Every structure is written in C-alpha cells, then in structure tokens.
Amino acid sequence: MPQTYSNILLHVVFSTKERIPFADHSQRQRLYQYMAAIIKDRFGFPIIINGCDEHVHMMVNLRPTIAISDAMRVVKACSSKWFHETFPRVPFGWQDGFSVFSVSESNRQDVIDYIRDQEEHHKKMDFRQR
C-alpha cells in the first residue's frame, strides 16, 4: 500500500503547574492558537483547543509516526516559552504530566462539544468535583 491512512483522534488534558489560574480569555485564546500551529506544523491536525484558567483540553488527530508523549512535551515546552515571551509579567507554567484518551469517530462531535463548552461547564462544576 503506497499511502497510509489513519484517524488517531485523541482528547488530551493538562493543567497549569499547581493548578494556578493564568491569563485572561484573550491571552488564553492566543495561546491556544499558538498551540494549534505547533500541532499542525509538526504532528498532525488540531481539531479543537479550549480550556479554562487552570487547564486546557484539546482534540488532535496525530500522524501515526508520532509518539503522544513527544508531541505533548514539544507543545507544552514551546507554548510555555511563547507565553513567557509574549506576556512576561504573567506567571505561567504547565504541569509535568497529561491525560490522554482515545476518541472513536462516533464520539468525535460529543468530545468537540465538550471541549468547546469548557468555560460554561466549569461555571457549573469545579474540576475537583469530577
């Protein structure tokens, strides 16, 4: 087979160091755009990235040659560096780890909706209640 087809849908979640809130909404949106560019440039396709003031959710479709841990290490390191350079007075850092969940094509839209509605979701339920 001359070409490879894959549909590796992943829901990735990670938080700021010690769950310390960071940034305002517009700063977060710029950070998410930067993270999406990193993913698109190096690892696959960013489907959606969103979150709250202390964590981020993303759904990505990674190339089959990419290790998830390598992709997340680069995304977190590069986005942290960009954030510090862009907003030098705002304290910021990512936690060391992350959570990742595979997503079936049949659940794709449900997960996209969940990620899209993160701010509204966390107005109703703190992450510690899950």
Write the layout of secondary structure elements.
Elements: E1 8-15, H1 25-42, E2 44-51, E3 55-62, H2 68-86, E4 99-102, H3 108-116, H4 118-124
Antiparallel strand pairs: 1-3, 1-4, 2-3
Q: Rounded to an integer, what's the Rg over CA atoms?
A: 15 Å
What are the secondary-structure elements, in order, as H or E? EHEEHEHH
The CATH superfamily appears as Transposase IS200-like
- The CA-CA distance between the termini, in Å, is 44 Å
CATH topology: Alpha-Beta Plaits
Total number of strands: 4
**Tell me about the biggest sheet?**
4 strands, antiparallel
Please supply descriptive tags for the structure shown above.
alpha+beta; Alpha-Beta Plaits; 130 residues; four-stranded antiparallel β-sheet; 41% helix; globular; 4 helices; 22% strand
Descriptive account of the structure:
The protein is an alpha+beta fold. The chain has a single domain (8-129), classed as 2-Layer Sandwich (Alpha-Beta Plaits), CATH 3.30.70. It is 41% helix and 22% strand. It is built from four helices and four strands; from the N terminus they run βαββαβαα. The protein has a four-stranded antiparallel sheet, sandwiched between helices. A hairpin with a 3-residue loop joins β2 (44-51) and β3 (55-62). It is globular. The mean pLDDT is 91.
